[in-house]
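Table S2 (text version). Query chain:
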Amino acid sequence: MRYRLFASNEHGLHSPFVFELYTRVIKDETAFYVFSAIESVRAKMLLSDKSILVHDFGTGGNKTHEKKLSLQFIAKNYVKPAKYGQLLFRLVNKFRPAQILELGTSLGITTMYLASADSKANVTTIEGCVNTAATAKENFETAGIKNIKQVTGEFSEVLPEVLKNIPQLDFVYFDGNHRKEATLLYFNQCLPKHSEHSVFVFDDIHWSSEMQQAWKIIQQHEAVTLTIDLFFIGIVFFRKGIPKQHFVLKY
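Corresponding structure-token output:
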């Protein structure tokens, strides 16, 4: 309710950069040709009665949880809706990042949106659960998307090694651990590889009080110059030469 009360639209924007981004990218409803192919994969998952054993490393608490879930349940409850996957596609299409990192592959739906925007981009995606990662791999093969490199393992163990092999992080999508401590840890680990033109996107910034606290700390970081709060996701920019600003926008 607070978000709906304070979120503004393009009429309240005085930043030319944010105005263009909001009107031409965030609110754009153009149906790119790859959308239907990716959504057909989602539809297949939603109709599947197959179940897999899922290791959950980051939905709260400090213990690893293991449970058997149907692909239908995962696709319905754990995968971002098309609206947000397509927004990620448009952001990549706009900023043309060469190196993209995703923390949290899940079934690979958002990964495919990230990778399909530019076939020349190198997309590295990390998933903690072996069985979930295997399903995502099958989905990538079904969609014929080849510019995705998968890494399987708990983030705290594999992220440092992954970062060693990436020269610069142009775009990062954080969607794998919804705890304050972990979110800030991964943010700080990725930070040395950012540039002025990097874009960091955080999922579920209002998912819990912990995530809201993490989002506020990220906003206040000295390297961050501009953030956009779309409620379910937050977008972070590091552009120099602009005053530090934070926007809450309707989406």
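Notes on Table S2: The mean pLDDT is 92. The two ends are 14 Å apart (CA to CA).
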